[in-house]
Amino acid sequence: MDIRQLQYFVEAARLGSFSKAAKALYITQPTVSKMIRQIEEELGADLFYREGKSVKLTDAGEILLAKAQNIVESFHSLSSELDSLRKLKKGHVRIGLPPMVGANFFPAVIGQFHRKYPKVTIRLYEDGAKKVENDVENGILDIGMAVLPVDETKFHVFTFAEERLELLVPAGHRLEGRKSVSLAELKEEEFVLFQEDFALHDRVIDACVKAGFQPRVVYESSQWDLIAQMVAAGLGIGLLPQTICRDMDRSRISILAMTDPVIPWQLGMIWRKDRYLSFAAREWIGFAQGLLKDKGDPGKKKVDSST
């Protein structure tokens, strides 16, 4: 069993698919299948079983994953440390982006970084903010964009967006034409929310509970544009950040300010305090901070090249 086999296994376990793992690793699916079959033969145990179109870990697979993640992470750290020792401006950075964050804040940053450091590969993983935070904590990702607050005993944090949630209602809704609405006024409404692995899911539900009611969630999605479309179709109301609402088509949707309470939406770039950062990752953090500093909190942590 070698490090490459373990890398393929960890990626297949993370994505729940041999084909998706092959795509992420830029290899063929038969290669992934072959490598995992070799591990299974060596260990004398099945590591995956099929469930619909995805694969799930067996008990043996769960045990191997716990060990393999540490081994793969140690290997990446060794490679990164050697690159930094040579002062070579090449390498790769693993960055987690929630869908809303990636589309609205980072295309320009990534483009400028690539032009300056063409030999650095940026691998983007698009997941909900809660999963991104968890993957940074577990070393699967180097850097993540998360909805704040996070545990600052574990993470360095650079805040780059401080906004609030706004209310979306369909045309003809009883609240259409109002400038602002209190959360308590939405007690009898049906909600269209992000799925549970998105931080905004819990944020909205917690705010509603504090306002004295449990929201009736009728639909959940991982895509903000689908949420907006469902609201426009009259299937419920939605709560989305100002950045998303700013450029939204308002021909079928009205957007109202939320008051009493205001529900904040803060975004931060996070990375672990107790883990080695590669030269490429340190360059990325410093570069992104420089471009986003006008939106950030100057009191937050700046990257230290000795981290």
Indicate the CATH topology of the domain at 162-265: D-Maltodextrin-Binding Protein, domain 2
Order of helices and strands: HHHEEHEHHEHEEEEHEHEHEEH
DSSP, total strands: 12
- Beta content: 25-35%
Poorly predicted parts? 295-307
Rg (CA only)? 22 Å
Task: Assign the structural class, choosing from mainly alpha, mainly beta, alpha/beta, alpha+beta, or little secondary structure.
Answer: alpha/beta
Tally of separate helices = 11
Major sheet details = 8 strands, mixed
Keywords: DNA-binding, Transcription, Transcription regulation
GO molecular function: DNA binding; DNA-binding transcription factor activity
Family: Belongs to the LysR transcriptional regulatory family.
Protein name: LysR family transcriptional regulator
Q: Describe it for me?
A:
- GO terms for molecular function: DNA binding; DNA-binding transcription factor activity.
- The protein has 307 residues and is of the alpha/beta class.
- Among the domains are: 1-87, Winged helix-like DNA-binding domain superfamily/Winged helix DNA-binding domain (Arc Repressor Mutant, subunit A); 162-265, D-Maltodextrin-Binding Protein, domain 2 (3-Layer(aba) Sandwich).
- The protein has helices spanning 3-15, 18-25, 29-43, 59-86, 99-105, 107-116, 129-137, 199-210, 224-232, 242-246, 279-292; strands at residues 48-51, 54-57, 91-97, 120-126, 143-148, 155-170, 180-182, 190-194, 216-221, 238-241, 253-259, 264-272.
- Strands 3, 4, 5, 6, 7, 10, 11 and 12 form an eight-stranded mixed β-sheet that branches. It has a two-stranded antiparallel sheet with strand order 1-2.
- The protein is globular, with a radius of gyration of 22 Å.
- The two termini are 32 Å apart.
